[in-house]
Protein: MBL fold metallo-hydrolase
Organism: Kribbella hippodromi
Amino acid sequence: MRVTWWGHATSTIEADGTRLLTDPVLTSRIAHLRRRRGPAPRPEAGDCDAVLVSHLHADHLHLSSLPFISPEAALVVPRGAAKLIHADSGSQYSDRCIEVAPGNQLRIGSLDITVVTAHHDGRRLPWSAYEGPAVGYRVDGAPSVWFAGDTDLYDGLAAEAGAVDLALVPVGGWGPSLGPGHLDPVRAAEAVRRVGASTAVPVHFGTFWPIGCDWLKPELFLPPGDRFRTAMAEVDPAVKVELLTPGESIEVAA
């Protein structure tokens, strides 16, 4: 399996001839946020068999990135997202949607996908009434992967998502504070322990930041990756932490 991190929560998971793209943000701006580290993903980032969207927030379901995605790709989205996509972008995208909720299973190419719970606000707020469940995804190939989306810890995490070989786990955010429903580096390490991953890639940090606010709490921009690595070593030193830069890839064996 080859995994490429494009920044924030956007990653390509490629295994057995199938390519999945998580929460694609393929531009340099999200409203008031700008990409502060690394260029926008290369055009190849949009080449996929399916997109996995974790929830309706604009930094995860980024409607402006849809035109950069393969026109044949399925859009796997939380239940309720297709109406939002249709209203904004039309039937050419909403007709490709597969709406899901926790517990659903589907197969994309050679990979089996299980939708798992995420403890996070799934509403599109603040500018929209659209809502749906926030989810994560377990991808079963060789190896297996847990893509968390945005979530906090919850009691059933190990039962729903684990045991997996690789965790794509959020460790930070895009601004000077983390609200409820997010993992900080310490809680992210505990999440990885619960799902039993032997390799972890920290995501959702060190990419976007509010325009004109580079000076504001810089310790919350790039340092969460190193803090996660330190916390993981304390929780389970056997876990290999791959601290990637945007556009970098790793090969993961089962």
Q: What stands out?
A: The two ends are 8 Å apart (CA to CA). DSSP finds five helices and 17 strands in the chain. The chain has a mean pLDDT of 96. The first strand starts at residue 2 and ends at 7.
